[in-house]
């Protein structure tokens, strides 16, 4: 069962209409709410600002039906900000109240009501009630006051110069305890169940007056079963007048029943339940006609406008000999364009080209793109200075017309598209590359774009692989974050995907997010992981994902979960369950779409590294997660009352094996969640995406290729060749094809053998550097194994390249000349004693550590510091400064800023160059590390001619100093 008062649903603030004028006024806390009593030019009991730029009068000619009169406010003079008439009064903390009123505005004036809550005389929370239209409109809202002890109702209006002389009217304002409302009986007018392969979105349209006393319930069962099963429930969304929720982890091609009903202790009669029936999708569709491409290279773009039927889909595929390639090059905007078409399958094609998008789908439904190899789309452009100041710093990749290149996709799903499936595809190697945050907001290509479509899509089991040389902007992108249809929109599943190399988000779920589900995905090497900013309607479900936040092309990291704020009037809720996060910065952060709170609930997530930064208490709900000490920022009671604090070492993080280590503190410490962990072992579920006994291959895909380890490491010295190679083991069942081949993401990366058989047996692949590679530093890439049947599996590769004659000058910080820093004894640190910056920023700025060096050979060098960022409040401790001899002191921000771990940081010049190249002449030099922020700890400093830190791996464990 689920109710609007419990943790899952209390986030909904209801704006509900009553059946008639004044029915809520009997116990009205607002005095003179009908404005009939005036004292001169002011309604009694209402307050005006000291400087008034409007005329107020009681108007008996303009009023809503049933009212005696109204308050008319006419703007006399322009002014900044909003005008207001207000009344403030005491309330009872912990109560629920109901506001109701009527507003009318002249065109453009936009009168509205705002409610402010106060605690101890200080503002506690603001609640907006929607703006009026041109006619009389009833506005209302039911809300919980939490700890507030006073309330103000503000009647507000615009004061722009163009509105002088215009008026706004307010009538019959009332605030009553919610249980005193006169309400219209509740009824479910329509219950819809919208299926995908493994999920069902449920929508219950409600008539009548909802309340926070109303309990919503949802259960389900397979058709023919006798027992109803529990669910995560439903959430109320007032703007659309719906109860919504999802059924998760369902079987394909299965008929289900779902039942929704409501109860309310303040209503005399219980509304009748509603039942809906639907069948989940099947992976197999009936093919009525097959169209084969010619063998060899086909250079003409493919335009599809045909319409199949539900019983006879039309399939486009390659010639039976397997040699067909569709390479449109630059002949057209798209290699394949699907327009006003239905029931189409594009299957196991190699697709290249398209000056904008490889595949574009618009005004079409029931389209399946499966097992395709998609690459080489888009315009690479030319990196040039910005021609438009609004674009940002630049430079950007510009086309021949001087316009920024952005939003070019391997697959574009746009207006009018519905029920599009992209599955088992390999989308990689765009012609262009994204800029980084050093240039302003990243711009560039993406693998899949969802742009103002009708939703109801599935993106599953794809390998979406960028490269250091061809990074995506977002791996999966929504084109219009602030629009309801701007991204996945509704009833969309993103599952089983591998997503590497983006300079911004791994995926943008932003937009409506009505029953959007993101599960069983692996995201690595991006700036942010999953963005839900904003969630305009909700709910969305993000569960059993692996996010390894290694950073964008400069190594900078941001949020694993980027949560929105309160710009939208009624933001929807995000549910985060059973995710495993290793974030080199923030595991989760709120308020990325407005400064106020947005509803979020976390359960059973494993934050192996990364702070949870969520300063808004009202709508957050965090519990049963595993996290490091001081990583909940702020640590608000009762958040994480049942959480586990500790360090998870994992089976083998370097090999990408994020399964729980033996005797992990996360084992059996989760909470039961219907549909999410029904099959858990033991008395309680394990925390994280990988329960004990999980398969080492992730994401889990039915009948898929096995490629292990998931991550590998190779090493090289320039001029001396490979020093360490990696062995990958591939196993491809015969059902997936006859043979497999290996594709590497970058030219410096080699794999042998390049082919092998699909025989269900293990085969070894050796991964190494190309001996001709002359790039140094940390290089990151991917190895993808793809069968001729069109199935894929990728592993992530880190490559470390050092110069032939390596120079390293390394010293413990306490052994060097220093001032301002204090010596701190640590028990779990890399050395027994470290230096700590002062607790005042001005004192920290005057503190320094000096490293003297003698350089034998002039050249390029790099500065490193083994530093510790304390938590909570890690953003206030994550930087130093650097000075070379007597030169300029430059800002040294830490691109990786997770708290409570010792990590090597390489110097950079903020937003200009990472790593910072330091040109030194032969002779003696002094490098000075200056403090900047407070309490930053430094264990060692080093200078080397390699951008790779002297100790390249994170030192595991917690430090005692906090």
What would you note in describing this structure?
Keywords: Signal. This is Right handed beta helix domain-containing protein. Residues 1-26 form the signal peptide. InterPro entries: Galactose-bd-like_sf, PbH1, Pectin_lyas_fold, Pectin_lyase_fold/virulence. With 962 residues, the chain is mainly beta. The chain folds into five domains: 38-180, Jelly Rolls (Sandwich), CATH 2.60.120.260; 187-279, Immunoglobulins (Immunoglobulin-like, Sandwich); 378-655; 706-802, Sandwich (Immunoglobulin-like), CATH 2.60.40.10; 808-944, Sandwich (Jelly Rolls), CATH 2.60.120. The protein is built from one helix and 78 strands. The strands form 14 sheets. The protein has a 15-stranded parallel sheet that branches. β12 (187-195) and β13 (200-207) form a beta hairpin. It starts with 37 loop residues before the first strand and ends in an 18-residue tail after the last strand.
Q: What gross morphology would you assign?
A: globular
Residues in helix, %:
under 10%
What share of the residues does DSSP label as strand, in percent?
Answer: 35-45%
Alpha carbon gap, first and last residue: 42 Å
Question: What is the count of structural domains?
Answer: 5
Count of distinct strands: 78
What's the number of helices? Answer: 1
Coarse structural class: mainly beta
**Main beta sheet strand tally, sense and closure:** 15 strands, parallel
* Low-confidence residue ranges: 1-25, 953-962
Mean pLDDT, all residues: 92
């Amino acid at each position: 069962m689920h109710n609007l008062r419990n943790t899952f649903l209390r986030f909904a603030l209801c704006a509900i209409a009553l059946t008639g004028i004044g029915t809520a006024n009997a116990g009205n806390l607002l005095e003179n709410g009908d404005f009939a009593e005036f004292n001169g030019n002011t309604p009694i009991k209402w307050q005006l600002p000291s400087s008034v730029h409007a005329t107020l009068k009681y108007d008996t000619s303009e009023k809503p039906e049933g009212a005696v009169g109204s308050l008319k406010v006419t703007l006399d003079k322009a002014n900044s900000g909003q005008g207001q008439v207000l009344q403030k009064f005491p309330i009872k903390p912990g109560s629920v109240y109901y506001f109701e009123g009527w507003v009318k505005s002249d065109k453009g004036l936009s009168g509205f009501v705002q409610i402010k809550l106060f605690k101890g005389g200080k503002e506690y929370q603001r609640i907006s009630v929607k703006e009026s239209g041109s006619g009389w409109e009833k506005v209302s809202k039911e809300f919980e006051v939490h700890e507030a002890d006073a309330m103000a109702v503000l009647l507000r209006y615009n004061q722009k110069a163009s509105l002088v002389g215009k008026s706004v009217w307010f009538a019959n304002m009332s605030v009553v305890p919610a249980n005193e409302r006169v309400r219209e009986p509740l009824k479910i007018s329509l219950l819809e169940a919208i299926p995908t392969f493994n999920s069902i979105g449920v929508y219950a349209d409600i008539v009548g007056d909802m309340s926070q006393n109303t309990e919503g319930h949802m259960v389900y069962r397979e058709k023919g079963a006798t027992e109803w099963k529990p669910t995560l429930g439903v959430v109320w969304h007032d703007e659309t007048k719906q109860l919504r929720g999802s059924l998760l982890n369902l079987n394909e091609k299965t008929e289900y029943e779902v039942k929704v009903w409501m109860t309310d202790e303040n209503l005399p009669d219980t509304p009748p339940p509603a039942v809906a029936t639907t069948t989940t999708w099947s992976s197999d569709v009936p093919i009525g006609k097959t169209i084969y491409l010619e063998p060899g290279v086909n250079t003409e773009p493919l335009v599809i406008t045909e319409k199949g039927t539900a019983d006879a889909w039309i399939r486009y595929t390659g010639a039976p000999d397997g040699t067909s390639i569709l390479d449109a090059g630059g002949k057209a905007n798209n290699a394949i364009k699907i327009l006003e078409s239905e029931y189409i399958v594009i299957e196991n094609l190699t697709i290249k080209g398209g000056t904008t998008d490889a595949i574009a789908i618009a005004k079409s439904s029931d389209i399946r793109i499966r097992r395709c190899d998609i690459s080489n789309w888009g315009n690479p452009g030319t990196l040039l200075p910005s021609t438009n100041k609004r674009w940002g710093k630049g430079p950007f990749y510009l086309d021949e017309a001087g316009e920024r290149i952005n939003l070019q996709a391997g697959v574009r799903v746009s207006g009018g598209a519905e029920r599009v499936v992209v599955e088992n595809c390999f989308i990689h190697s765009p012609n262009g590359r994204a800029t980084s945050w050093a240039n302003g907001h990243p711009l560039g290509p993406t693998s899949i774009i969802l742009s103002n479509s009708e939703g109801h899509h599935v993106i599953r089991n794809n390998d979406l692989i960028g490269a250091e040389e061809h990074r995506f902007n977002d791996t999966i992108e929504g084109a219009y974050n602030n629009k309801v249809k701007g991204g996945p929109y509704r009833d969309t599943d993103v599952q089983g995907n591998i997503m590497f190399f983006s300079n911004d988000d791994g995926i943008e779920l932003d937009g409506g997010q009505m029953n959007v589900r993101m599960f069983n995905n692996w995201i690595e090497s991006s700036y942010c992981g999953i963005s839900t900013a904003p969630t305009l309607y909700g709910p969305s479900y993000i569960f059993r994902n692996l996010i390894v936040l290694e950073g964008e092309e400069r190594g900078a990291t941001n949020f694993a979960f980027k949560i929105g704020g309160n710009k939208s009037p009624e933001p929807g809720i995000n549910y985060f369950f059973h995710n495993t996060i290793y974030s080199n910065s923030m595991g989760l952060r709120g308020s990325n779409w407005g400064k106020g709170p947005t509803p979020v609930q976390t359960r059973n997530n494993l934050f192996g590294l990364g702070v949870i930064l969520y300063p808004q208490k009202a709508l957050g709900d965090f519990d049963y997660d595993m996290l490091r000490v001081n990583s909940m920022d702020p640590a608000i009671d009762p958040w994480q009352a049942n959480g586990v604090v500790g360090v998870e070492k994992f089976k083998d993080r370097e090999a990408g094996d994020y399964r729980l280590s033996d005797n992990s503190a996360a084992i059996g410490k989760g909470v039961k969640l219907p549909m999410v962990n029904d099959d858990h072992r033991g008395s309680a579920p394990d925390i994280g995406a990988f329960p004990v006994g999980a398969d080492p291959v992730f994401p889990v895909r039915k009948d898929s290729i096995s490629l292990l380890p998931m991550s590998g490491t190779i090493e090289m010295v320039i001029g001396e060749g490979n020093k360490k190679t990696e062995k990958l083991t591939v196993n491809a069942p015969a059902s997936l094809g006859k043979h497999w081949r290996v594709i590497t993401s970058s030219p410096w990366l080699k794999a042998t053998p390049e082919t092998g058989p699909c025989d269900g047996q293990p085969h070894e692949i050796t991964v190494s550097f190309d001996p001709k590679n002359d790039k140094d530093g940390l290089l990151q890439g991917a190895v993808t194994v793809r069968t001729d049947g069109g199935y894929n599996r990728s592993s992530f590769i880190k490559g470390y390249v050092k110069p032939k004659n390596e120079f390293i000058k390394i010293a413990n910080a306490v052994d060097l000349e220093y001032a301002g820093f204090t010596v701190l004894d640590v028990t779990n640190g890399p050395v027994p004693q470290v230096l700590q910056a002062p607790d005042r920023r001005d004192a920290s700025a005057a503190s320094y550590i000096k490293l003297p060096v003698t350089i034998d050979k002039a050249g390029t060098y790099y500065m490193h510091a083994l530093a510790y960022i304390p938590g909570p409040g890690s953003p206030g401790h994550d930087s130093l400064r650097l000075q070379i001899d007597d030169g300029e002191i430059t800002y040294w921000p830490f691109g990786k800023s997770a708290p409570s771990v010792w990590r090597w940081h390489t110097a950079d010049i903020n937003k200009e160059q990472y790593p910072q190249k330091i040109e030194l002449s032969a002779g003696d030099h002094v490098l000075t590390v200056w403090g900047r922020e407070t309490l930053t700890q430094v264990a060692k400093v080093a200078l080397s001619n390699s951008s790779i830190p002297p100790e390249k791996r994170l030192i595991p464990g917690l430090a005692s100093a906090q």
